[in-house]
Structure formats: C-alpha cells, structure tokens
Write a structure and sequence with these properties.
With about 450 residues, the protein is of the alpha/beta class. The protein has 3 domains: about 90 residues, Immunoglobulins (Immunoglobulin-like, Sandwich); about 290 residues, SGNH hydrolase (Rossmann fold, 3-Layer(aba) Sandwich); about 30 residues, no CATH class. Helix content is about 20%, strand content about 25%. The strands form 5 sheets. Strands 3, 5, 6, 8, 9, 10, 12, 13, 14, 15 and 16 form an 11-stranded mixed β-sheet that branches. Helix 4 crosses helix 9 and helix 7 crosses helix 8.
Length: about 450
C-alpha cells in the first residue's frame, strides 16, 4: 500500500517480516530481504538492523550450507541498531545471510535467501523516472522480455514523506523481486521505474553479472523535496510552502522526500545513482537549479559514503537525463531550455569541474507529442535508458573507445562582416543539405572495441 501524508519523527515498520523467526525487537533493515542484490567487490556490502541494546549479533554468509564468512558486532545503546560490513565478494550467488542475536539465554535468528552480489544502482526523480514499463512504447514486448534477466533484481520504495530524517524506510511497495510482467507493468506510475529497469537490463547485457535496482521516485516533485536542509541552505533556497503550478502535483516541501525516501537508504553500499527530474523546477526556483542540482549530488555522495562506513565511493557515478522538449500551450517560455543548461551547472556538458564523475543522457530529440500522458512524458524510455547505460559504461566502468556523448564545440567564431558563424567541434562534422532551407549535421563516431 502506498503511504501518504507526513511521518513525524522516526517511524519504524510495525509489521514483523514473514520469513523471520524473531519478534519485531530484532530485525533487518526494511530493504534487506530475499532476492536482494548486495554490492560486489571492491566495496564491502553493509548489513544492518535493529535489536536489543547490548546484545551480540553474529552475521553469517553461507553458500550451499557452507559458511563463507562471519562478522560479529553489538547492538548500540540508544539507537538499538547493529551493523556489519562484509568482506568484498566477487559477483555471483545465490547466498544466504543469517543474523543471530544473543543476550543471556535469549537466541533469535533471522535469514534472507537467494542473495546475489553485483552492482547496486539507485534510481530517483519525478514522473519520467516513475513511469512503468506498461506506459512506454512496445510495452507488451518489453513486459514479456524478462526470462533472461532474472539476475536483475528490483525494489520500489513506497511514497512517503517525513519532516525529519528517517533511519529506515517507512514502507516498501515492491520488496526485492525477480522481474515479471506483473511487477514491471503494475500500473501507471506504480511500482518499478521503466527507465531504471531498462538501464539495468542494458547494463546486464554488457556486464553479465547481477544488477540491483532501487526505484525511489515521486511524480510532480521539485528538487527541493529531494534535497537535505543543509544543501538547500548552501544554495540560499528561500523557505516556501506548497507550489500551485501545474507540473507540481507531488510533495514540494523542503526535504520531505530526502528524509523519507533517500536518507533511509544511506547505509547501503551503492555503485551509483541515476536521476530524472527537473520539470517541476521549470518555473519554481529555476535560477537556483545550477546550484541545487550539483549540491544535491555532492550531498548524496557524502551522506552515502559516510553511512556505508566508507564503502560507497565518495565520488560515486551519478547519471541523469536531460529534459526532453514538450508542447507547452501556455507560452513559448516553458523554462525547459534554462533548466537543461542548469542541469550541467551552466557548463553545457558533463563531467565538468562542478560535477565530476557524472554522465548525461540527451533527450531533447525525444519529444512525444502524442503521448497519452502528455508530451512532457515521452514514451521512448528505451533510448533514454540506452544512452544512460552508455554513459555509465564510459564514466562508471571506465570503458574506452566508447562514444557516449555528442560532439562539443571547441571554438566559436562570429564573422559578422560575412554573416557567418564558424563552429569548431571536438569530433568530425558532416553537414548534409536536404534542401534550400534545411540541413542536417552528422558526426563521425568511434567504433566500439
């Protein structure tokens, strides 16, 4: 069930987990479950949960009833939390993770099964990230194409907002699962993100090892809702209440989604993040987006690095989607060109000095004027995901000889007396004239090796 409204203070799920042998006093974190993917080497995966203060917790990793490793810790006073960092493991599985709590004569055991090790990616943003596979082009074919991707595991976070930072998720719409037509196409803007799924599927085709995908997005939400208070303060974002403009239909209050849907994940070891957001800032704090977006990236990186005991890379890869064009009936100044520019911190390209280790999927050419969800929601998410995965291969995985971005201008020269503008590009450009009024530019690309 989708939980709406505010969650005040620290909120813990009240229902016991079906596969545990303990009461609610001893449990794993909400997202540690059967079928999950944990981050592979060179990082160590973090396993954590709650218990009785002072108790000893032993975490055991097993495969085929053979013990692979053991880690021992104690439940901390006041927070009642325990945490261990597993030794780095190569991709593969399945494994079983067992946690045993002992205190005096008390002995309680938790287990999660079918655990894989691979790369874990967090996917966040607003409605274009939240769109499901059932809403995109060729949905029927895409929903039937899951059999070969059972090592791509998916999880979807419930829509929850909170006034304070939560330590654990208040709800999970879709627990860790193998992909099926039902959970990928559950309904409009429900369950699993199409962009997230297609991105992970493309990565799996290249990497051939398990991929974990976490969808945490909410339609119609501005960046302020996904940002911590400290990052908004750093950009001088003024405090405001509800926003009444059309593109904003979800929560808009400062930090409420950061508090409830991102911060509870910060102990997790991640490979990287992909992000699709900005439409709701086209006419709201638009001129601050060149600060709020790069600052969000920096803040998320620092928070996940610290929360995972240094296991998530301090500069983990962060990919995002450039906003597409759409048909605005209000006026020609829809704010999108400015947001696209601000998405790159006003550099016009990424990575750059303010946004290191980032990559961008261009989407300006994907306007979908006939989309039943409005042209602001293009249905060609396959191209978006493919371009994101190319950026990830180049930036996150260091693949060489891979073209993942278009040509960048090296020199611009205005020859006013001749009525000419000379452009020098970083890649070879071929201009083809279609007729007296239209021309087309093509550029030479490197072949994949």
């Amino acid at each position: 069930m989708v939980a709406l409204g505010f969650v005040l203070g620290l909120l813990l799920p009240l229902m016991p987990r079906a596969h545990t042998s303990a009461d609610v006093g001893f449990r794993f974190a909400s997202y540690i479950d059967d079928h999950m993917v944990l981050q592979k080497e060179p990082a160590g995966a973090v396993i954590w949960g709650y218990g009785i203060s002072g108790a000893t917790v032993t975490v055991t990793l097993c495969q085929d009833q053979e013990t692979i490793m053991k880690k021992v810790t104690q439940v901390k006073a006041h927070s009642n939390r325990w945490m261990v960092v597993l030794d780095p493991l190569k991709p593969g599985g399945p494994y079983e993770v067992m946690a045993q709590q002992t205190l005096g004569r008390m002995n309680l055991t938790l287990r999660v099964h079918d655990v894989l090790f691979g790369d874990v990616w967090l996917c966040s943003g607003q409605s274009n990230m939240q769109m499901t596979v059932s809403q995109i082009f060729n949905a029927t074919s895409e929903l039937s194409n899951t059999a070969a991707y059972q090592s791509v595991r998916i999880l979807s976070v419930s829509l929850v907002q909170a006034e304070q930072e939560l330590e654990d998720l208040a709800g999970v719409d879709l627990p860790w699962s193998e992909p099926t037509s039902e959970n990928l196409g559950h309904g409009n803007f429900k369950y699993m993100s199409a962009v997230c799924w297609l991105f992970g599927r493309d990565l799996y085709d290249t990497l051939q090892y398990p991929i974990g995908l976490i969808s945490s997005s909410w339609s119609g939400t501005p960046i302020e809702a996904w940002s911590s208070g400290r990052s908004l303060k750093a950009c001088g974002v003024p405090k405001q209440g509800f926003i009444l403009s059309d593109p904003v239909s979800g929560p808009s209050e400062h930090s409420v989604l950061w508090n409830a849907m991102i911060h509870p994940l910060h102990n997790m070891t991640l490979k990287g993040v992909i992000w699709y957001q900005g439409e709701s800032n086209a006419n709201f704090n638009r001129d601050l987006y060149n600060c709020t977006f790069p600052t969000l990236i920096e803040d998320w990186r620092q928070t996940f690095h610290s929360g995972s005991q240094g296991q998530t890379d301090r500069l983990f890869p962060f990919g995002f989607v450039q906003l597409s064009s759409f048909l605005s009936h209000a006026n020609s100044d829809d704010g999108f060109p400015q947001i696209r520019w601000h998405q790159t911190a006003d550099f016009g390209h990424v990575p750059n000095l303010r946004m290191p280790n980032t990559f961008m999927a261009v989407a300006m050419d994907l306007c979908d004027r006939n989309s039943p969800f409005g042209s602001i929601h293009p249905r060609d998410k396959q191209t978006v995901a493919y371009r994101l995965h190319l950026g990830a291969r180049a930036v996150a995985y260091g693949e060489k000889m891979l073209t993942f971005e278009g040509p960048l201008p090296k020199k611009i020269e205005l020859l006013a007396h001749k009525g000419l503008l000379n452009l020098m590009y970083s890649q070879q450009i071929l201009v083809q004239r279609q007729d007296d009024k239209i021309f087309e530019e093509n550029y030479k690309v490197n072949t994949l090796q």
